[in-house]
Amino acid sequence: MVEEDAPTLYIYGLNMGDLQQFGIVAGASVQEYEDNIIKKHELTRKAKEEDRTKLTDIQGANVGPVFLAYRAQETIDSVINGIIATEPFIDVTSDDTVRHRLWKANPEEQATICASFDSVPEMYIADGHHRSASAFNVGKMRKERAGEGVTGEEEFNFFLAIFYPHNQLNIMDYNRVLRTFGGERTAD
């Protein structure tokens, strides 16, 4: 791992069979989560949220990116298409045959993408409600600990996310099997 000298956006490409998605790897705003610009669509379990909050606080890092969806923007798509037309700096196919690629956006591309997100009114959590909630909790705790002088640019004001345009989404089922329901055993 190498720490960047300045904030950096990456483009992440995922190929799984016929599925191909390209997302922007960046820090999502804890403030936008609080202001409901980052929309939630499911509740979190208190115990799991508390556990993830503790883990995130102790590690001082996010355990995995949150999957955020946004309404596709022509300018963002254009910049990303230009970036992915070049050679990625990471290109690996995992044992499960999923291909992962990573590109680094240059400062001009980053500026265009960031400016274009000003016209994105909201984003939606597709996966990562507990991770988002824990990042919010850690941000709030650290802001309180820091007291006066918090600028909003501190690392605790952001959490790791991959932003995907809506027109590339292919969200697969994640089903759970209930073995008991109200004390009664159910069929698997």
Can you put this structure into words, describing what you see?
It is a single chain. The chain is an alpha+beta fold. It has one domain (10-166). Helix content is 31%, strand content 28%. It has 5 helices and 10 strands, in the order ββαβαβαββαβαβββ. It has helices at residues 30-34, 46-59, 74-84, 107-116, 129-146, and strands at residues 10-16, 19-29, 38-39, 66-70, 90-93, 99-104, 123-127, 158-165, 180-181, 184-185. Helix 2 crosses helix 5 and helix 3 runs antiparallel to helix 4 (107-116). The chain starts with 9 loop residues before the first strand and ends with a strand. The model has no long low-confidence stretch (mean pLDDT 90).
How many distinct domains?
A: 1
Overall average residue pLDDT: 90
Helix-strand pattern: EEHEHEHEEHEHEEE
Classification by helices and strands: alpha+beta
- Please state roughly what percent of the residues sit in beta strands, choosing from under 5%, 5-15%, 15-25%, 25-35%, 35-45% or over 45%: 25-35%
Weakly predicted, low-confidence segments: none
Distance between the termini: 43 Å
Helix content: 25-40%
Radius of gyration: 18 Å
DSSP E strands, number: 10
Biggest sheet descriptor: 8 strands, mixed
What is the count of helical runs? 5
Shape: globular
How is the largest sheet built, in terms of strand order? 3-7-4-8-2-1-6-5
